[in-house]
Structure formats: structure tokens, C-alpha cells
Amino acid sequence: MFKRAVPFKSYPVMGKRYYCAYCDRSFKDDPEARKRHLSSLQHAKNRADHYNMYKDPEVILQEERGKTPCKRYLTVGDCAFGLGCRFSHYTPQMLWELQQYVNMRNASKLHVTPESGWPDPDDIIKEYFENAESSSSLEEPSYPTWFKPLEVHDYSMLPPSLWPITPESLANTSTFNQWG
User: Fold this and answer.
1) pTM (2 decimals)?
2) Which of 8, 69, 131, 147 gets the highest tally of CB atoms within 10 A of its CB?
3) Which residues fall within 8 angstroms of residue 15, CB to CB, at 6 or more apart?
4) How confident is the model at residue 37 (pLDDT cuts 50, 70, 90)?
5) Residue 179 CB contacts under 8 Å (≥ 6 apart), including other chains
6) How far apart are CA 158 and CA 151, in angstroms?
7) DSSP assignment of the chain, as one string?
8) Residue with more model confidence, 36 or 154
9) Measured distance between the N- and C-terminal CA atoms of the chain, rounded to whole angstroms
10) Alpha carbon distance 33, 12 (integer Å)
11) pLDDT at 14 over 60
12) What's the CA gap between 158 and 61, in Å, rounded?
């Protein structure tokens, strides 16, 4: 049985066969066969197709705008060259949507100002630390109150993980050993 490899890795399988995840095929594992396969045009095309899926949308938009539309793909819906076609397989609607996506990404990268309705992150951090300093350290810290659910009031032998949390129980770390 062959294990499925991750798409970006080719490696020997079980010592006798070599599996290429780009091409989804295996063959005899010897240096000549491997070299022949890795230098083949089909392997190079499959590898390039795999990495083209992760291209930046802005790069794709620039490349596709420079190409003329593929007449066969736009009329028939199929092209023998596939991703290797030198003509564009994008419709004008698809190019427009891609342009909108790129514009949206670029707008989100810009620094957002308070005038646009979003708070400045530096102001948020400054306010947080001012509030932390202004709270008096002399005050006794407030702890959240813990209520036992009504269903467990009748049980006297609750496991330690269900005991109410109090400042004393947090200070006493020996009870945590009982949790098991």
C-alpha cells in the first residue's frame, strides 16, 4: 500500500517505489528513473501548476490583464492547454471580481485612522495601561464569585475540580495534586 504524500514533496515509498505527489504516480526507485522523472516536462508543469495556486491575487491580475482572452475556452469552456495556456481563461466578470478583491486587500493594509470610524491601536494600548496604573494597588482585588450549580448542592463528596474557586483555594496548591 502506498501512503498519500503531501503535494509539495516527493519521496521514496517503502524503499522500492518512488512516489511523486505532483504527478500522482509512483515508479521504480533508482537514481536514473528519478532523475528522468524530475527533469521531465510533465513533472515541471505539474509542479508549476501546484505553486500557481498560491500566487498573490495582485500578480495574477497583472498577468491576466496582459493576456488576450482564450477564444476556445470562452466559447467551448475547455482548453487543451489548461493552466499552461498562453491566453487568459478569465472572463471580464472574473477579472472585475479579482480587481475588487485586490482593491479590498490593499485598502485593509492601509493604516486606519480614527476619522474612518476605527480606533487607533496605539490609543487602545495607551488607555489600557493608563487604566491599569490608575487602579489603586491598595484595593483588595476582586475575585469572581463561584456558585455551585443547584444539581450538585446535595453531593458532599465533590471532586476537587468541581469545588468552588476561592482566593484561599488558589493559594493552596496542594489541592491540585488531588485532581489526578
Assistant:
1) 0.44
2) 69
3) 29
4) very high
5) 159, 160, 161
6) 12
7) -PPPPPTT-EEEETTTEEEETTTTEEEE--HHHHHHHHTSHHHHHHHHHHHHTT--HHHHHHHHHTSPB-HHHHHHS--TTGGG-SSB---HHHHHHHHHHHHHHHHHHSPPPGGGT---HHHHHHHHHHHHHHS-TTSPPP-------GGGTT-SS--GGGSPP-HHHHH-GGGGGGG-
8) 36
9) 42
10) 12
11) no
12) 63
Judge whether 68 and 88 are in contact, CB under 8 Å: yes
**Tens digits of per-residue pLDDT, 108-123?**
776 555 455 666 777 7
* All cell numbers assigned to 1: 500500500
Q: Which residues contact 18 (CB under 8 A, 6 or more apart)?
A: 10, 11, 12, 26, 27, 28, 29, 33, 34, 37
Q: Give Dmax (Cα) for the chain.
A: 80
CA–CA dist 180, 169 (Å, integer): 17
